[in-house]
């Protein structure tokens, strides 16, 4: 497996230090900290002083026949994926990767979380956009809503988290771009005694609300270590409707005394 920073043609990442150098989070001083998701994701993929898939990740893909024996061809940390036609319409994926299973080509993006939230709700994003002149935010959100849920924003969509919309949209776009038949959004949780467990519960509830708002997953529950049954999105001008998508969730327990020995 080859991992690079920012783009597929970027500098190669071989360990934790090169990850920090070539693919730092946006606010390195704040986000590159022990027990925070950015650094813990890097720790998870560099556990043996080299880049390799964490067991939680490989176990997740082994649960379904169409994702078993997945071989990573390329991984890109902090990859930007354009999900609409507007300026700035890019998702900053914590990790994006693609490769081949026994049955199909697969694209995967990873969203890492400790107790960080999924950002603002759709309702707050729209309300903020109305106060700005010459903003594309309302139309961007409308396109995301139509492409993923199949209708424009309404009262039932307002409480959903904007970050989850563009995370799934970018996953589908990446799959389409590399001619993959399946795109998977993986939520990777990092749990330690340093996190706010109320925020962890809030994240779980937000993820559940988002999943069950999507046609085809209305009655689904996303369990840790499992993948949702793949569906096709409604699609829009930019979000493809001819690739299958799924969402999975994994969890890593981070010990407080990890570096003592």
Question: Main attributes?
Answer:
23% strand, 261 residues, alpha/beta, 8 strands
Binned strand content: 15-25%
Which geometry do the CA atoms define?
A: globular
**Could you estimate the helical fraction of the residues in percent?**
25-40%
Per DSSP E runs of 2 or more residues, the count of β-strands stands at 8
Distance between the termini: 29 Å
What is the count of helical runs? 8
Q: Give the overall average pLDDT.
A: 93
Low-confidence stretches: none
Our Rg estimate from Cα atoms comes to 18 Å
Reading the helices and strands in chain order gives EHHHHEEEHHHEHEEE
Largest sheet: 8 strands, mixed
What structural class should be given to the helix and strand makeup?
Answer: alpha/beta
Question: Describe it for me?
Answer:
Helices cover 31% and strands 23% of the residues. The chain has eight helices and eight strands. Strands 1, 2, 3, 4, 5, 6, 7 and 8 form an eight-stranded mixed β-sheet that branches.
